[in-house]
Amino acid sequence: MTTRTGRHFLQIPGPTNVPDQVLRAMSAPTMDHRGPEFAAFTTDLLTRLGPVFGTTGPVVVFPGSGTGAWEAALVNTLSTGDRVLHVETGHFATLWQRMATELGLYVDFVPGDWRHGADPEAVAERLAADTARTVKAVCVVHNETSTGVTSRIAEIRRAMDATGHPALLLVDTISSLGSIDYRHDEWGVDVTVAGSQKGLMLPPGLSFNAVSEKALAASRTSRLRTSYWDWGPIIEANSRGFFPYTPATNLLYGLDEALRMLEAEGLPAVFARHDRHAAATRTAVHGWGLEVLCADEREHSSALTAVLVPEGVDADKVRQIILDRFDMSLGAGLGRLAGRIFRIGHLGHFNDLTLAGTLAGVQMGLRLAGVRVDPGGLTAALDVLGAE
Ligand SMILES: *Cc1c(COP(=O)(O)O)cnc(C)c1O
């Protein structure tokens, strides 16, 4: 084993780097989750959580990974045999629709090329053709973490509304919440699915469902509902500051601190910071003479950038060299993109010099891997970061 010095660069698009103050907050002694102190803590926490989702409605917090919150969104709103529309934006969309199939739903999977977001017109066409109104929900991944493409949720909602179809809109924001502009209420989303370990700067272990009134109404007749994920008892207990079963108390302490950080910076500034770092990253990639996977200018992710390696180069080999030489982890190509891309995470607890170091490591690693990249790529990115 090589001795490592300094901090590891964890530049995968989640789990992301956890700020020291969040780690410290989580090290506080676990409190009685049935006691009065906890009730006051939870009531304040839940009040401050809504704005991050852009909602005044309930946000249900689960001890669980993002995958659990996917399941919660489906089982609370749907019944066995219901039809749902999923859109193939990449690996995560593929996994979510597979879960829906396994739960006994009939999935219509709108095909995609993994370089574009969900097409609002394609969604509208499918809904317009469904004159019997058998489709109960449309499921879209907001920020497809496997490709670095962000779907235009507001436009999808408008296209759905234009058809007059009553389907619910379920959106996965696991890698966008707290990094990329998102508005649950304003955009008319029915269930927003989120996780703790990406934009929210926490370790893995918490997941979330923001719930519209329409989704809540659907949950009263859902026949897929299971007791662990059931929104009803959680929302009821939350109204008194409690949970029906033991919550992940110390992760909630971390969430409290992470919310404080987001509040201090202000969400518009948080989003602008991510946009700017993503733009500087693309400048580097283009300067190197490489291609970004996202093929639509309107859909570049501000949370991560997926970089295509030239034909004949193994992206996993590049990542291995960067890990061995510079102690930096980058995201692998997932599913059909394995070996073809690597992903640079630039979300969460992140600043200009973290990006400068990250891009320097990528540039050096590419050259060590024998990829002839123009070193002007890094310089061009630094010019973006250092602009007056
Ligand atoms: C990370 C991620 C998931 C999976 O979340 P887990 O916490 O690993 O279960 C799902 N969807 C997207 C978009 C993600 O980025």
Q: How would the global form be characterised?
A: globular
Quaternary state reads single chain
DSSP strand count? 14
- The amount of beta strand, in percent, is 15-25%
Given helix and strand content, the structural type is alpha/beta
CATH topology of the largest domain: Aspartate Aminotransferase, domain 2
The percentage helix is: 40-55%
**Radius of gyration of CA atoms, rounded to a whole number:** 21 Å
Distance between the termini: 43 Å
**Poorly predicted sequence stretches spanning 5 or more consecutive residues:** none
Mean pLDDT: 98
List the helices and strands and how they pair.
Blueprint: E1 9-11, H1 20-26, H2 36-53, E2 59-63, H3 66-77, E3 83-87, H4 91-102, E4 106-110, H5 120-129, E5 135-141, E6 143-144, E7 149-150, H6 153-163, E8 168-172, E9 191-195, E10 206-211, H7 213-219, H8 231-238, H9 249-265, H10 267-288, E11 291-292, E12 304-308, H11 315-326, E13 328-332, E14 341-345, H12 352-368, H13 376-386
Parallel strand pairs: 1-13, 3-4, 3-5, 5-8, 8-9
Antiparallel strand pairs: 2-10, 6-7, 9-10, 11-12, 12-14, 13-14
Helix pairs in contact: 1-9, 2-9, 5-6, 10-12, 10-13, 11-12, 12-13
Bound molecules: pyridoxal-5'-phosphate (PLP).
The site of pyridoxal-5'-phosphate has 12 residues, from α3.
GO biological process, one term: glycine biosynthetic process, by transamination of glyoxylate
Pfam families: Aminotran_5
Function: Soluble hydrogenase catalyzes both production and consumption of hydrogen from suitable artificial electron donors or acceptors. This subunit catalyzes the tritium-exchange activity.
